[in-house]
Amino acid sequence: MQSSTVYKDRALASLKGNWDKGVIATVIYIVIVAIGSNIVSAVLGPKAGTALSFVWTLICIPLIWGFYVYFLRVTRKEDLAFGHLFDGYKGNWQRIFTTTALQYIYIFLWALLLVIPGIIKGFSYAMTPYILKDNPELSNNAAIEKSMAMMNGHKMELFILELTFIGWILLGIITFGIGLLLVEPYMMTAIAHFYEDLKEEQAAPAV
User: CB atoms < 10 A from the CB of 135, how many?
Assistant: First the structure.
């Protein structure tokens, strides 16, 4: 595995000429997932709004998966049509939905014990979206367990990589969130490159 600086440099190289697509994809994602949920809650009031906001989040799970995979497409120089954000709703969408939902449920349950175990498990499961993309035969616990195996010994590396974006995230926040439209594609592409190296490492024959 490489240093955080290398992954960030590789992300910048992949986004060269694609920043506009990365930003627009992020806007689409935020508008549908975050703003859409808030609108539902505001229109229907606190009680009904909270319940339907949760339902809206469930409906958006395949889109959340599609957002992760979109930036994997960026690293692979594949077609970046915005319709790919909604690939999770096509074909065997139940596989995407149930696996991602289980991932969140497991993280939540671990976090109920203590915050730190929840965070650790979050990093253990972090490769699940990409595994679902590259391994159509895997779903649910099988995909999550593969992520855990891939991340064994690499959780701290991913933590450090994400930590290096804290300054950029804070800068994005003080610009009323506008800067986050650049930070999000940058970070997501760097993490996708991290996955690509993990995948290559897993595929390499033992010496």
Answer: 12
pLDDT at 52: 76
How far, in Å, CA of 43 to CA of 58, rounded?
19
Average pLDDT, stretch 63-87?
Answer: 97
Helices (H), the chain: 4-15, 19-30, 36-44, 46-59, 61-75, 93-113, 115-124, 128-134, 140-151, 155-163, 166-174, 180-203
DSSP string of 16-33? TTTHHHHHHHHHHHHIII
pTM to 2 decimals? 0.92
Ranges of each domain in the chain = 4-202
> From CA 155, how far away is CA 146, in angstroms rounded?
14
Nearest to 2 by CA among 149, 203, 202, 196: 196
Cα 6 to the center of its chain, rounded Å: 20
**What is the token pair recorded at 75?**
């690293």
CA distance 44 to 206: 57
